[in-house]
Amino acid sequence: QVQLVESGGGLVQAGDSLRLSCTASGRTVSRYTMAWFRQAPGTEREFVAAISWITRSTDYVDSVKGRFTISTDNAKNTVYLQMNSLKPADTAVYYCASGPPRSSGLKYVKADYWGQGTQVTVSS
């Protein structure tokens, strides 16, 4: 089993930045697709970003393109989500997830493992 632990959430103002971290333990995830999802109150969980650990290919939901960057640090077994120019609409609980490797269509990843979530709140 893979365990995922998120950190880095917090309360910020619109226009500020946050960097979320997700550290994986357990079974190796070196071949996995890593992803971030988010869920705001009263909404369904939505895909945010994904990265292939092997190919470095990435994918993002349209609403965060140009503002968010997903990356990994293999030595630390960690995936990051750098969030810039945050908007109140970005307020949500952010979840780290991992799924099978994909050669294309990373946004369609079927996550097998999930973290507990970290709260991001962006004020006006």
Describe this structure in words.
By secondary structure, the chain is mostly beta strands. It is 0% helix and 52% strand. The protein is built from no helices and eleven strands. The strands form two sheets. Strands 2, 4, 5, 6, 9, 10 and 11 form a seven-stranded mixed beta sheet that branches. It has a four-stranded antiparallel beta sheet with strand order 1-3-8-7, with no helix packed on it. A hairpin with a 5-residue loop joins strand 5 and strand 6 (58-60). It is globular, with a radius of gyration of 13 Å.
Report the strand count. 11
Main β-sheet description: 7 strands, mixed
Tell me the number of helical segments per DSSP (H or I, 4 or more residues long).
0
pLDDT averaged over residues: 93
Strand content: over 45%
Poorly predicted runs of 5 or more residues: none
Shape: globular
Structural class: mainly beta
Compute the CA-based radius of gyration.
Answer: 13 Å
Give the SSE order as H and E letters: EEEEEEEEEEE
Terminal-residue CA separation: 40 Å
User: How helical, in percent, are the residues?
Assistant: under 10%
